[in-house]
User: Fold these one by one.
Assistant:
Number 1:
Amino acid sequence: MSSPANGHPSPPRRGVRIAAIGATVATFVAMIGVATSTQASAAPGCKVDYSSSNWGGGGFTGSVKITNVGDAISGGWTLKFTFPSTTQKVSQGWNATWTQSGAAVTATSMSYNGSIGTGATVDIGFNGTYSGTNTAPTSFSLNNVTCTGQPGTTTTTTTTTTTTTPGNPGGGSRVDNPYAGSKVYVNPDWSAKAAAETGGSRISNQPTAVWLDRIAAIAGTSSSRGLVGHLDEAVRQAAGGTMTIQLVIYNLPGRDCSALASNGELGPTEIGRYESEYIDPIAAILARPAYANLRIVTIVEIDSLPNLVTNVTPRPTATANCDVMKANGNYVTGVGYALAKLGAVSNVYNYIDIGHHGWLGWDDNFAPTAALLYQAANASGSTKANVHGFIANTANYGATTEPYFKIGDSVGGTPIREKAKWIDWNRYVDELSYAQAFRQQAITAGFDSGIGMLIDTSRNGWGGSARPTGPGPTTSADAYVDGGRIDRRIHLGNWCNQKGAGLGARPTAAPASGIDAYVWVKPPGESDGASKEIPNNEGKGFDRMCDPTYTGNARNGNSMSGALPDAPLSGQWFSAQFQELMKNAYPAL
Ligand code: BGC
């Protein structure tokens, strides 16, 4: 790692602890200095456990667990090993600075893991390529002492370490706001469907996110071009300029545990498949040098962790599936794994989902969610440095701002927060105030102070003829709030294909304090769920919240669902919804 002492600028605000280096990207490596360190050990000793998993096509992930069986190490360490074949190459690694010369590999400690107490372990890893067979190396040394698993003889070593910075033609360090000064990728597959709709060309050039909602979406399906196809197209659209592409990481085991419409392909215990068949291949593709100039925003696992706070026993809103996912820990493990693997790619920006104000805005949900996210950010080898920020309102309908009432208003001397049924003691009445407050709560929970927020404004416009034009009457708290609110939903807990909804603010960079961007993550026109049972092979169920005749459950105050009729499976094109969204767009089209 660089330090100001050798003339290199300080690390970026959101610490980047990533080394992207190796034979394939060696031309981008900048030599920035030579540091000499002296490490004295009474009885050094180490043990190394090396494992690799191949994912076909010549790619693999190497995992290296270093155990210090000798005296405590402080002030840094260097691990060396030699691959049996020169075709084995480290392309990008994490938790160490990785270099390779011929078959010889060197991994140097980072600022945060340079000390290893006696008996302590450090996990480092890398993505690599090979041809032929991928035989594991057998001999390792730590600080020039061969790792035998036993403490060695008394020795003093002086090592001279050559320090390099991560090589990446995009700069190797993240910018504060990946949307600032950047074009954002227009998904041609969504764009074509939008343009084919009457009036759709008014918005078909807007950037929307690419959803990797199943393993098959990585390679591509009949309706999507696959991850490489999108990234190649993003490079083309960039035309040499700065380009941000938005990917939704959405395939946890036991997905969508409180609902049925977006249940996924992986069962509650299939965390191994999630890691090796879903996250690992995505991370390997994102790490390709061809994509190093892109800013890759990853929206990490919507509707997952908050469910473990609100929809578990003993809450009245509990579901059996959320109890299972809380008990087996696989949401936390999976999110941590995704953050660690994706965050190891130096041009990836991880944003974790934080639901929306109508879900987590109550005191008993708000701080516990931030704490759980912090736990996940430090799970599975991840650290908080892998988290660039959070996203609110993904695929939901909460207004960015309610213009005609504020949470602090009173009617007849009583705060509307306590009296109005619509608010029902929530601390927030809209997404902007919620996102800004959550940002502070996340910092309190331990996240970096540089984190930024996103708000999905794809369907929260609430324009059209039913939009109020001023505050409601002050005859009662309910009359005041219900008469003035632009969010026309029957209940805040309604989430499926909402009638009356409109397109919200068009994607915008840095629109408000603490907000990195307004984004369109849920592609307008894609269904939230089928309004009746439709057999499918994606694992998707029939959730009655998508049935306009349903009278509700505990999670929507036993209200009507407010859903549009005749909706197809979640993710499929729903022309009537697209037309509804355009009709009620705010600002109008
Ligand atoms: C679906 C996904 C789809 C996404 C975007 C989700 O509700 O489950 O399959 O990709 O919406 O439309």
Number 2:
Amino acid sequence: MKIATFVFKDQRRVGIVANDGESLTLLELPAGESHRGVSAVVDLMVNNGDLEASFGETVSLSDVRLLAPIPRPARNIICVGRNYHEHARELADSVFKDNDSGEPRWPIVFSKLPETVIAHGDPVMLPPASVSSQIDYEAELAVIIGKGGSNIQPEDVKDHIFGYTIVNDVTARDVQMRHKQWLLGKSFDTFCPMGPWVVSADEFVAEDTRVRCWVNDELRQDGLTRDLIFDIPTLIAHCSRGITLIPGDIIATGTPAGVGMGFDPPRFLKAGDRVRIEIDGIGTLENTFVGKD
Ligand code: MG
């Protein structure tokens, strides 16, 4: 099941995308719930609600404007740094080097502010050069937490995953490095494109899918999730140690090799660049980067 958040007839709505990707079945959710996007469906299903009872009319996908599936997360997006073997090697000399391979002994975990989230098709705003001149893309598979919990064991994570989506963990590299902690360099306005929708966990094989990213039709990243250093069960176990995860929490699992910073010389984004991310089994997330006047 693919679940999308979108605008239809000037109203924010949630719906189920048909298998052919051409139409949507609207969900008739209680007043106010649609505003929360897919988070409302997560809560409904965590509470054993009857989703089919809310099925409404079917409309064409071309008649809606997609929004990020969770337009405003309830709290920061949890992100994992340097979590593919080849990406760790390409950045081995850059940040937080803690052994020769560049691979961390523990997951590197940081967060992005909820206000960074934008939709497929929305523009990403480049900051003035005085703020940052090193804007980079990071194609990532993101996990949407269903049932909450703390101290979740790796063997139990299936009970806690609602589904998956795509995020672009857009990063200001100079700001990221300068401050050691990554929050600022990762949280500029519009720096978290998300979408195009959420695929439910029962229809997606997260352990073995392909993550690709193009900049202006040039393939830059091409990774397989089987190359994750810390797999998704391990990540959820770490992120829930002493912290209660809640329904709708988002964990971005890290990016494969091929980021702009990994090139020599680095290839950072500029106004007019188009970044397209595809994850097999989910879909396509595309955004254009634009300069501020
Ligand atoms: Mg990242």
